[in-house]
Amino acid sequence: MLEKVQFPGAQALVIGPAGENLVRFACLENNYWRSAGRTGMGAVMGSKKLKAIVFHGRAQCPVADEDLLRQCVSDIRAKAKDNKGVEAYQRYGTPVMVALMNSVRAFPTRYWSEGMFSQWEKVSGDYLRANYEVKSRACPRCLLACGKLTTVKDGPRRGLQVEGPEYETIYSFGGLCCIDNMDEILHLNDLCDRLGLDTITTGNLIALTMEATEQGKLKEQIRYGDAEAAARLVKQIAFRQGLGDVLAEGIVRASRELGMQDVAVHVKGLEPAGYDPRVLKGMALGYATSARGACHLRATFYKAELSGIIDPDTIEGKAELYCDWEDRLTIFNTMIFCVFFRDLIQWEDLIPVVKATTGLELSRDELRRKANDIITLTRLFNWENGFRRKDDALPKRLLTEPVKPSGKQISEEQFNRMLDDYYRIRGWDEEGKPVNFRL
Q: Where would I find the Aldehyde ferredoxin oxidoreductase C-terminal domain in this sequence (predicted)?
């Protein structure tokens, strides 16, 4: 189609039936396999009757110092050599996290009641490599090649091909829904891609439905581990049919309709990623303070806690380190860097990259101030739209119910201590309102 309009090399950003039907967590699809999954941007395009945006052209963005930029790239590549994190991405992609998260008992399972999936080895990165045809795929010129093109080799799903599944899809359909068949997780991944649905939210909502069945609050019998029922529900959500029409309204409205408000896990209407904040307590702060809800990408702080930079149970000083990570990743976002380069691009690497691309000679402190300005401006937008400290909170269930089997939990006192520290560091008052802010 793109070649017919004589734009070879053009790329399209498209929505699927879920976006057309205004499912509140419909996503955008691009480059065939890639998804901009969270917060329902597909529904926004659908509301405008906009099916796709096609991009084409040959213009390049000028940089301030090409020679310095080449040297920065060379230095980053040198740091990547023999780096164990890089090797893990190249070999497994994000499914490498399945084994790790289960080992620390922070893999959300059975709709946030447990931290370890008894069948996790059947949905792990090693299982994928051993039982499927897996080929690495990379974004243009990227050395990580974290994408994995997976093909089912036999059985009823033989020939099914998906770029993935990513860790978050495995956690949401595998852990939360207790589905231990990787073929079926790949099928669910493929359905979501074709229909234009965010896999994190979709998996969370289906798991909530399974929990509602367990509690006798649902006439339909959608049991944990039932991949066929899950696939049927995915389609119903995208086309707003039956129970799917209820779930298509998102976690806040759906949980109210199902009578599951006290069980539903979300922050500001967005479900967390696959890192239990009762174990990784820095993620509790990250989920709560993220401007768009329970986002794990604002700081990717799970890496700091899992790699031993700071103990997951530590409360003292956690907000300070979290802010440092959030500031650096905020600069990443302004530069359009992939967050998976966080180990390779530290502050000392960012300084010359910023100079090479923009011509600005900024110190670490100056970069952090700019990051804080960005975060605070975003906060001001939310404040003007009614968000307050009460919205920067974990669901009560995660503050009162320990995760099984470890018994790990985070108390309200621990959480509020981190939140107070965060507000202070950001220059906000006790309610989270920015004070004396000037650009």
A: 73-435
- The answer to the question of residue 393 being in a domain is yes
Residue 114 sits in the same domain as residue 253: yes
Is 85 a residue whose pLDDT tops 90? yes
Q: If pLDDT is split at 50, 70 and 90, which confidence band does 31 have?
A: confident
Angle at 318 between CA 316 and CA 320, to 5 degrees: 105
Note down the domain range covering 38: 11-55
Write the pLDDT tens digit of every residue in 387-414. 999 999 999 999 999 999 999 999 999 9
**Average of pLDDT values for 169-176?**
98
Instruction: In whole angstroms, give the CA distance from residue 301 to residue 254.
Output: 29
CA-nearest of 281, 162, 279, 274 to 207 is 274
Q: Which residues are CB-neighbours of 276 under 8 A, at least 6 positions away? A: 105, 106, 107, 108, 112, 115, 283, 403, 408
User: What is d(CA 6, CA 290) in angstroms, rounded to the nearest whole number?
Assistant: 42
Helix orientation angle between 412-426 and 281-289, rounded to the nearest 10 degrees: 60
Q: For the residues 158-173, what does the mean pLDDT come to?
A: 97
For the purposes of burial, counting CB atoms within 10 Å of the CB of 62, is it exposed (0-12), middle (13-18) or buried (19 or more)?
Answer: exposed
Q: Six-digit token pair at 14?
A: 């498209």
Domain for residue 403, yes or no? Answer: yes
Q: Which residue has the tokens 């199902």?
A: 258
Number of domains in the chain: 3
Distance CA 363, CA 335 (A): 16
Question: Do 325 and 385 fall within a single domain?
Answer: yes
Is 109 in contact with 102 (CB distance < 8 Å)?
A: no
CATH number, residue 252: 1.10.569.10
pLDDT at 186 over 80: yes
Which CATH number characterizes residue 419's domain? 1.10.599.10
First to last CA, the chain: 46
Q: What is the pLDDT of residue 2?
A: 44
